[in-house]
Amino acid sequence: MANLKDDTRGQWILLSGLTIAISLVTVAVLLNQAAVTGYYSSNAALEFPKEQIRDLTTQTRETAQSATLLAYQLNQSSNLSVPTIITTLLENYSMQTSILYASHGETVDIRVSNVSMNTSNTTIVDSIWMNISYYDGNTFYSSEPEIIEVNA
Amino acid sequence: MNDQAQLHTLEGLGAAVLVTMTILIITQSTVVVTPQSEMFMQVDLKQTASDTLTILDVAPQIAIQHNLTECVASYNVSTEATLLGGELEILDEELSAILADTMYNVDLAYMDNGNLTVKHVVINGMPTDNSVVARRLVTLYNSTVTNSGGTWDIADGDLLVVEVRLTAWQT
């Protein structure tokens, strides 16, 4: 037994095993961190509603411009003023859009805050100011006012 | 009696246990890696699907014969697609040209007399668990529908917002 206690050569084997084990654990931890980071970044890219927000503002701008052209036509055969017709059309657009977005769990609020007329020719609309807000439970977006130039 | 080997054996066993435990920990923890690649594919597919709808809607006349709004405006609302055939063939052709190697279905959602209505217009199959949905709004007017030959019921001084829902998945 005295020889067994004095013989320390085998400790190198244990030390090597320990070193390799620590190295592998370190590599595993690093791998996991990279994997978890990738998971969360992918998840964030899927969750963030950038396309919905972009579509909402783009479509609102296009509709405001089309609604203005339509309002000029309707004004020819109606007692209602151009701003009133524009507001009515955009309120209808807002109502339909809100319901469509609500069908997939998103809240949308679009309101006309001001219809700005041309100073030199008061029958022409210069710009429409709209308040747009979007909320999906995680991301809140607001553009107040969204100024839309319609006198192109 | 020479008993040196006993200590070597014990030390060797200790090292083996350490290495084995480490490998077990690594093997089990790599489970996290699996959903990562799936999600990357989903992110990529969702972006492609959204871009496809955007391109179809904003591309100039010289690049594409019928844009998304014109395709939707040409829809006959009294019909609906089945597995045997779609209702918007022009839209289907344009989508298949862009979304190669990708399966997709297209639905239209809109308000009809105060009720939310969803119509299937292109059906290519049953979406898988990893499918993604891209959406785009189009606004229709009486003049747009008349020019495109559709049957949407829109009054002269009115508009209709239609949501195009593109469900895409990899085969």
What do you see in this structure?
The complex is a heterodimer of chains A (152) and B (171). Chain A is an alpha+beta fold and 152 residues long. Chain A has 2 domains: 2-45; 49-149. Chain A is built from 4 helices and 3 strands, in the order H-H-H-H-E-E-E. Chain A has a 3-stranded antiparallel beta sheet, with helices on one face. In chain A, strand 2 and strand 3 (140-149) form a beta hairpin. The longest helix of chain A has 37 residues, at 11-47. The radius of gyration of chain A is 32 Å and the shape is rod-shaped. Chain B has 171 residues and is of the alpha+beta class. Chain B has 2 domains: 1-32; 37-169, no CATH class. Chain B has helices at residues 4-29, 33-58, 68-73, 89-98, 142-148, and strands spanning 102-112, 115-122, 132-141, 159-170. Chain B has a 4-stranded antiparallel beta sheet. In chain B, strand 1 (102-112) and strand 2 (115-122) form a beta hairpin. Chain B is rod-shaped, with a radius of gyration of 28 Å. The model of chain B has no long low-confidence stretch (mean pLDDT 83). Chains A and B meet through helix 2, helix 3 and helix 4 of A and helix 1, helix 2, strand 1, strand 3 and strand 4 of B.
